[in-house]
Automatic annotation (TrEMBL):
Pfam families: Pyr_redox_2 (PF07992). Its cofactor is FAD. Keywords: Flavoprotein, Oxidoreductase. It is an enzyme of class 1 (oxidoreductase). Homodimer. Its EC number is 1.-.-.-. It comes from Oceanobacillus iheyensis (strain DSM 14371 / CIP 107618 / JCM 11309 / KCTC 3954 / HTE831). It comes from the Bacteria. One of its GO terms (molecular function) is oxidoreductase activity. Signal peptide: none annotated. This is Pyridine nucleotide-disulfide oxidoreductase (Divided with OB0321 and OB0322). Gene3D superfamilies: FAD/NAD(P)-binding domain (3.50.50.60). SUPFAM superfamilies: Nucleotide-binding domain.
Length: 148
Protein backbone atom coordinates (compact mmCIF):
# COMPACT_ATOMS: atom_id res chain seq x y z
CA UNK A 1 0.00 0.00 0.00
CA UNK A 2 1.48 3.31 -1.14
CA UNK A 3 0.97 6.56 0.71
CA UNK A 4 0.33 8.48 -2.49
CA UNK A 5 0.29 8.23 -6.26
CA UNK A 6 0.98 11.33 -8.31
CA UNK A 7 -0.42 11.31 -11.83
CA UNK A 8 1.57 13.75 -13.94
CA UNK A 9 5.33 14.19 -14.13
CA UNK A 10 5.53 17.88 -14.92
CA UNK A 11 6.72 20.59 -12.53
CA UNK A 12 3.65 20.36 -10.25
CA UNK A 13 3.70 16.57 -9.98
CA UNK A 14 7.46 16.39 -9.46
CA UNK A 15 7.32 19.14 -6.83
CA UNK A 16 4.59 17.26 -4.95
CA UNK A 17 6.59 14.02 -5.13
CA UNK A 18 9.68 15.82 -3.83
CA UNK A 19 7.86 17.13 -0.76
CA UNK A 20 6.21 13.75 -0.13
CA UNK A 21 9.50 11.91 -0.53
CA UNK A 22 11.23 14.25 1.89
CA UNK A 23 8.47 13.41 4.37
CA UNK A 24 9.30 9.72 3.98
CA UNK A 25 6.06 8.90 2.17
CA UNK A 26 5.98 6.00 -0.29
CA UNK A 27 5.11 7.61 -3.64
CA UNK A 28 4.92 6.59 -7.29
CA UNK A 29 4.76 9.26 -9.99
CA UNK A 30 3.09 8.26 -13.27
CA UNK A 31 3.87 10.13 -16.46
CA UNK A 32 3.06 9.29 -20.07
CA UNK A 33 5.62 11.80 -21.41
CA UNK A 34 3.01 13.66 -23.47
CA UNK A 35 3.52 17.18 -22.15
CA UNK A 36 1.52 20.19 -23.30
CA UNK A 37 4.76 22.13 -23.68
CA UNK A 38 6.55 19.59 -25.90
CA UNK A 39 7.07 22.27 -28.61
CA UNK A 40 8.08 24.95 -26.12
CA UNK A 41 11.68 26.16 -26.28
CA UNK A 42 11.86 27.70 -22.80
CA UNK A 43 10.03 27.38 -19.49
CA UNK A 44 9.62 30.47 -17.38
CA UNK A 45 8.58 31.38 -13.88
CA UNK A 46 10.71 28.81 -12.05
CA UNK A 47 13.06 30.44 -9.57
CA UNK A 48 16.74 29.86 -10.56
CA UNK A 49 15.60 28.16 -13.80
CA UNK A 50 13.90 30.95 -15.80
CA UNK A 51 14.38 30.20 -19.50
CA UNK A 52 15.33 26.54 -19.07
CA UNK A 53 14.30 24.05 -21.74
CA UNK A 54 11.24 22.06 -20.48
CA UNK A 55 12.91 18.68 -20.96
CA UNK A 56 15.95 19.78 -18.95
CA UNK A 57 13.70 21.04 -16.15
CA UNK A 58 11.90 17.69 -16.12
CA UNK A 59 15.15 15.70 -16.06
CA UNK A 60 16.49 17.77 -13.16
CA UNK A 61 13.20 17.23 -11.32
CA UNK A 62 13.38 13.47 -11.87
CA UNK A 63 16.91 13.39 -10.46
CA UNK A 64 15.74 15.34 -7.42
CA UNK A 65 12.84 13.05 -6.56
CA UNK A 66 14.66 9.79 -7.25
CA UNK A 67 17.28 10.65 -4.59
CA UNK A 68 14.64 9.65 -2.05
CA UNK A 69 14.32 5.89 -1.57
CA UNK A 70 10.56 6.01 -1.05
CA UNK A 71 9.87 7.69 -4.43
CA UNK A 72 9.74 6.00 -7.83
CA UNK A 73 8.55 6.95 -11.28
CA UNK A 74 6.65 4.93 -13.89
CA UNK A 75 6.61 6.13 -17.50
CA UNK A 76 3.14 4.92 -18.36
CA UNK A 77 -0.47 6.08 -18.32
CA UNK A 78 -2.97 5.29 -15.59
CA UNK A 79 -6.12 3.97 -17.28
CA UNK A 80 -8.43 3.37 -14.32
CA UNK A 81 -8.90 4.57 -10.75
CA UNK A 82 -11.34 2.87 -8.38
CA UNK A 83 -12.25 3.78 -4.82
CA UNK A 84 -12.12 0.75 -2.52
CA UNK A 85 -13.30 1.49 1.05
CA UNK A 86 -10.39 3.48 2.53
CA UNK A 87 -7.96 3.39 -0.45
CA UNK A 88 -7.71 3.61 -4.24
CA UNK A 89 -6.80 0.99 -6.82
CA UNK A 90 -5.16 2.14 -10.04
CA UNK A 91 -4.69 0.10 -13.19
CA UNK A 92 -2.06 1.18 -15.69
CA UNK A 93 -1.98 0.81 -19.46
CA UNK A 94 0.28 -2.22 -18.92
CA UNK A 95 -2.30 -3.83 -16.65
CA UNK A 96 -0.30 -3.24 -13.46
CA UNK A 97 -2.33 -2.77 -10.26
CA UNK A 98 -1.34 -0.23 -7.59
CA UNK A 99 -3.00 0.52 -4.27
CA UNK A 100 -2.67 3.86 -2.50
CA UNK A 101 -4.17 5.93 0.27
CA UNK A 102 -4.15 9.16 -1.77
CA UNK A 103 -4.17 10.17 -5.44
CA UNK A 104 -2.83 13.54 -6.54
CA UNK A 105 -3.79 14.65 -10.06
CA UNK A 106 -1.18 16.93 -11.59
CA UNK A 107 -2.02 16.36 -15.24
CA UNK A 108 -1.98 19.99 -16.33
CA UNK A 109 -3.90 21.31 -19.29
CA UNK A 110 -4.31 20.33 -22.90
CA UNK A 111 -4.88 22.87 -25.65
CA UNK A 112 -7.89 22.56 -27.92
CA UNK A 113 -7.23 24.43 -31.14
CA UNK A 114 -9.88 25.67 -33.55
CA UNK A 115 -10.33 23.71 -36.74
CA UNK A 116 -8.13 25.76 -39.06
CA UNK A 117 -6.27 23.83 -41.73
CA UNK A 118 -2.50 23.96 -41.26
CA UNK A 119 -2.65 25.56 -37.81
CA UNK A 120 -0.55 22.81 -36.25
CA UNK A 121 2.41 23.73 -38.48
CA UNK A 122 2.80 27.03 -36.64
CA UNK A 123 2.37 25.82 -33.05
CA UNK A 124 5.55 26.56 -31.12
CA UNK A 125 7.10 28.81 -33.78
CA UNK A 126 4.66 31.67 -34.39
CA UNK A 127 1.50 30.34 -32.74
CA UNK A 128 1.46 30.23 -28.96
CA UNK A 129 -1.36 29.32 -26.63
CA UNK A 130 -0.10 30.61 -23.29
CA UNK A 131 0.44 34.32 -22.62
CA UNK A 132 2.24 33.49 -19.37
CA UNK A 133 4.72 31.18 -21.11
CA UNK A 134 5.40 33.22 -24.23
CA UNK A 135 3.95 36.69 -23.58
CA UNK A 136 7.21 38.34 -22.57
CA UNK A 137 9.04 37.11 -25.67
CA UNK A 138 6.18 38.27 -27.92
CA UNK A 139 5.72 41.71 -26.29
CA UNK A 140 5.37 44.70 -28.62
CA UNK A 141 4.54 42.45 -31.59
CA UNK A 142 1.28 42.18 -33.51
CA UNK A 143 -1.22 39.86 -31.88
CA UNK A 144 -4.04 37.81 -33.34
CA UNK A 145 -6.63 36.20 -31.08
CA UNK A 146 -8.55 33.27 -32.55
CA UNK A 147 -11.99 32.39 -31.18
CA UNK A 148 -14.03 29.46 -32.27
Amino acid sequence: MLDSIVIGGGPAGLSAALVLGRAGKRVVVFDDDNARNKVTHESHGFLTRDGIHPSELKELGKKDILKYPTVSMEMQRVNEIHRENNHYQLITENGDLYQTKKVLLATGLKDVFPHVEGLDKFYGSSLFSCPFCDGWEMRDQALVVIFE
